[in-house]
Design brief:
17 helices; 74% helix; mainly alpha; single chain; 0% strand
């Protein structure tokens, strides 16, 4: 008996089968796949039985008929016979009963082998998680920037549905054959209670794939991220709205989703050895630093958009949220260096409350109105309808406007009579000012 196999032989068997087997006709690919499958299986079996070696050789001969004969019906018969001899190689049958029921005995082996890979081959699940995350984040990045979308299109092969299903079918068949073949030769190994639930590579591979995606995106889009107005002017058919407004929300979604990835990884990753801790710091630190660049990109895009179209309260709020998220990632990096994050939730809450208080102290509607008035002095464009819908907090910022524009931008309709419980300093100060009428 041998120790429980690693998942790589099953994955390799699937890849070999999908790459070499011509499903629609006989050819040398069938023979090469059979030989390589035997090699993969033999690497996991220390002492194969002589009878099994004999049946395996017969299986190769039968499959090899497709290399020297072109008759499809002949190869089909040989392939069916090869399935029987392969099952006998697995069961090691010596009797007539084994000859008759050998193929049946192979099916439980295949089923149990598949169950074994599902239970112990967690690396396969990790790779699947990594591919899924790369697909989700890659789609968000592609929607955020046309350059990255073009890179994805140029580097992605044309997908044919029929060929894709054929490849997946052959991959599963090859993997199941290898799993079923190995099942009688392995011993179930029960993990010790002290073993980590998630091993190092099982989290490092999917998160490392995500780090690679972030690195490619940052490298490709560095010019467009921080190019601002100059980049928009140089790029054909690109408006500020396309450059900033749509991309901002995709990049914000990436920022928030990455927090979830970091949180889950920090929760499940082992930290028993110094190597485990080094990997955790390195990979999550790289992901956090790259995400900080994404945060800076989103802020740069929104700032360029506001310079072109003016400031609004919503745009100011989302910028404040992005700045807070950047601060959160700085705290995540600090927690990663210390490998202690129990303080992190309180830190996030505290900084969030502090950011809200700072925003209130800055008087956000006044800031928006002041920026829009300064922009009007340069462009002679002002959205008075929007300003008139804000509160009287904006009144001090309107002093630089002509009387006609100031009257139309002043939100006087928000000055109902207050009783003593509704007294407010901004409204009280506004009542002392003259009330111009918008023409």
């Amino acid at each position: 008996m041998n120790p429980a196999p690693k998942p790589w032989p099953v994955l390799l068997a699937g890849v070999v089968t999908a790459a070499l087997v011509p499903l629609d006709r006989p050819g040398v690919g069938w023979l090469l796949a059979a030989l390589l499958l035997i090699v993969v299986v033999c690497t996991q079996i220390s002492r194969p039985k002589l009878i099994s070696i004999g049946w395996a050789a017969v299986t190769v001969l039968l499959v090899g008929v497709g290399t020297v004969r072109a008759a499809g019906w002949l190869f089909t018969l040989c392939l069916l016979a090869a399935l029987v001899t392969a099952s006998l190689a697995v069961s090691g049958g010596r009797t007539v009963t084994a000859l008759v029921f050998g193929a049946m005995r192979a099916f439980p082996s295949l089923t149990k082998g598949f169950g074994r890979i599902r239970g112990g081959g967690r690396m396969t699940v990790s790779i699947g998680i990594g591919v899924t995350m790369v697909a989700i984040f890659g789609a968000l990045f592609a929607a955020a920037d046309p350059d990255f979308a073009a890179l994805i299109r140029d580097s992605s092969p044309t997908v044919d549905i029929g060929s894709t299903f054929r490849t997946l079918f052959l991959f599963c068949c090859g993997g199941l054959v290898a799993a079923g073949t190995l099942r009688p030769h392995v011993r179930q190994r029960v993990p010790r209670p002290s073993q980590a639930v998630v091993r190092r590579l099982e989290w490092a591979v999917p998160v490392g794939m995500l780090v690679a995606l972030f690195a490619v995106f940052v490298g490709v889009q560095m010019v467009s991220w921080f190019g601002g107005s100059d980049y928009v002017m140089r790029t054909a058919d690109l408006t500020y709205a396309q450059y900033a407004r749509t991309a901002f929300w995709q990049l914000t979604a990436v920022t928030v989703l990455t927090l979830a990835v970091i949180g889950v990884t920090a929760r499940v990753a082992p930290r028993e050895s110094a190597t485990d801790r080094l990997w955790l710091r390195g990979i999550l630190g790289a992901l956090s630093l790259l995400t900080l660049i994404v945060v800076a990109s989103a802020l740069s895009r929104m700032w360029a958009y506001q310079e072109a179209y003016g400031f609004t309260v919503l745009r100011l709020l989302v910028e404040a949220c992005e700045i807070w998220l950047g601060l959160v990632y700085v705290m995540v990096i600090v927690a990663g260096v210390r490998l202690s994050g129990r303080w992190l939730p309180k830190g996030m809450l505290t900084t969030g409350i502090a950011a809200l208080l700072v925003l209130a102290a800055l008087n956000p509607e006044y800031v928006v109105a002041r920026q829009d008035v300064q922009r009007w002095q340069q462009t002679q464009r002002l959205d008075t309808l929007y300003l008139s819908g804000l509160s009287v907090d904006i009144l001090p910022a309107l002093d630089g406007l002509p009387d006609r524009l100031k009257a139309c931008a002043t939100p006087w309709q928000q000055l109902p009579a207050d009783d003593w419980r509704e007294w407010n300093t901004s409204r009280a100060a506004a009542r002392e000012l003259p009330h111009p009428v918008c023409p």
